[in-house]
Every structure is written in structure tokens, then in C-alpha cells.
Amino acid sequence: MQPSAEQAAVLAANEAFYRAFATRDLAAMDRLWARAAEVACIHPGWIPCLGRTAVMASWTGILANPDAPNIRCLKAQASVYGTVGVVVCYEAIERNYLIATNLFIAEAGDWKLVHHQAGALAVAPPEPPEPAAPVPGRLH
Amino acid sequence: MQPSAEQAAVLAANEAFYRAFATRDLAAMDRLWARAAEVACIHPGWIPCLGRTAVMASWTGILANPDAPNIRCLKAQASVYGTVGVVVCYEAIERNYLIATNLFIAEAGDWKLVHHQAGALAVAPPEPPEPAAPVPGRLH
């Protein structure tokens, strides 16, 4: 089923989050998190970071780490409840998979993050989370 | 800081969720999950259960297990964004701790669950999550 326009906008904000994460772009990450609303962030295995100062301090540390592995977001699905968007997606970090919940609220005309929780998966995602590799010699 | 009336109502719904979980009350668990809205549930390490049928099938299995350990919710904190309530809390299962995100929406006059994610903690909660044991001989 095609996402609605609202779901598509939430998914675009979710993609911007993972782009900021993957490219170590702290300024973009800072712009993505809500300013006025309460925010919280639960990195895998961590106790929660509560409040914007703690959340951004955690990202400052994570994005400054030159050895941080690459991250990709896969199979994101969005639900919208009024002015809150909820995304469930897999995170691929090298050969490991996590599962994440990301919450966005409508703030100043944009969808802004208010909550992120990622946790380890004990099992592989149920189907190949990436498009199959192109077959040599086939154009499409 | 005291929770607002809305936060208190969301925290009460969160307590009802953990009471249904701890007492293996499938009927109560069923009443707690939203009927009309999209729902999702991410048990620790599992791939997501998407949709009410999959979510309730997961709870039917979990609550039917006579060997399931006891669960307690600790240090719950609620934020309310419009018609969506977000609770972050620890879950104590015997001597292990998890961290959870629970989302509630206002549906038919009640706060109903639309989303649950729990994941393992790699560290202990930052301070004793339970009240200190009473001092013998002290009445209060």
C-alpha cells in the first residue's frame, strides 16, 4: 500500500535522521530534534537520555567517533496519529540488525524527532531487507 | 515534578498494561490495545508484530506460558504530545532490566496502547529503582 502524503513526509524525516547519522552530520542531527517539546533517546543497551541536552550530548559523542560503523535504515513503515508520526524500521550496522522506533511531531511546519529507541534483534529480519544484487547483463 | 492530569492518566494506562502482563490477564491486555488505530509491538529481540492480529497473537503466547517470569514496571515517565502519550520505563524481570517505550492514544475516552518496544539494557539502571527496604523498628 502506498504511504499517504503525511506518512511520506514522516518517512522523509526518518530518512534525514539516518542520513545525518550515517554522514556524522551533527548540525543536521541537531536540526532534526524538536526544540520546544520534551525529547528522549534510548540507544541500544543504554539507559534513556532524557531531555535535549542529554540527547544531543549522546549524539555528539556517537557522531564524533571515527570508528563508528556505518548505519543504514531498512524497511521503514510509518503510522500517523494526529500530530505524531511513528516509524518502525530496521537498522543495519555492518552485518548486524537492530529494530527501532522513531517518533516525530509536527513542529514549526516540519516533522521533528521527539523519541528514538533502538534495540538488538535476536533473529534476522524475516526477508532480505535489501534489493537483490543486480543480475550482470540485465538493465532492469 | 508532579505529572499533569493527562500524564497521570497515561501513567495509569501504563500501569494497567503491566498489571495485565504480570497477572497473565489476556482479556485485560486485549482491552488495553487500540481497536481502530494501527498497532505495533516489538518484544525484546523479536522482529516487530505489526497489526492487531499479530500483536494479540504474541500476547496470547506470552501470557499462556506458565513459566514466564514475573515483570514489574519501574520509574515510568510520561510525555503527552496532543492526543498521544509516550511512556519510558524500566521493566524488571527477576534480576534483569529492560527499557521500554509505550505509546498510547486517546480512543473512545481512554488511553489505549498503539505501540510497545522493549529492549535489553547493557547496564544497570542508574539508581536503585525500588524504594529502600524499610528500616526495622521504624514505622515510617
What does this structure look like?
2 copies of one chain form a homodimer. Chain A has 140 residues and is α+β, with helices and mostly antiparallel strands. The first copy, chain A, has helices at residues 5-22, 26-32, 52-64; strands at 40-42, 49-50, 72-81, 84-93, 96-107, 110-120. Chain A has 3 helices and 6 strands. Chain A has a 6-stranded mixed β-sheet with strand order 2-1-6-5-4-3, covered by helices on one side. In chain A, a hairpin with a 2-residue loop joins β4 (84-93) and β5. The model of chain A has no long low-confidence stretch (mean pLDDT 91).
Structure keywords:
homodimer, 140 residues, alpha+beta, 6-stranded mixed sheet, 3 helices, 27% helix, 34% strand
Which SSEs are present, and which pair or pack?
The structure is a homodimer of 140-residue chains.
Chain A: H1 5-22, H2 26-32, E1 40-42, E2 49-50, H3 52-64, E3 72-81, E4 84-93, E5 96-107, E6 110-120
Parallel strand pairs in A: 1-6
Antiparallel strand pairs in A: 1-2, 3-4, 4-5, 5-6
Helix pairs in contact in A: 1-2
The N- to C-terminal Cα distance of chain A equals 23 Å
Helicity level of chain A, as a percent range? 25-40%
User: H/E series of chain A, N to C?
Assistant: HHEEHEEEE
From the spread of the alpha carbons, the general shape of chain A counts as: globular
The stretches of 5 or more residues of chain A where confidence is low (pLDDT under 50) are: none
| Number of beta-strand segments of chain A | 6
Describe, in short, the structure shown.
Chain A has 140 residues and is of the alpha+beta class.
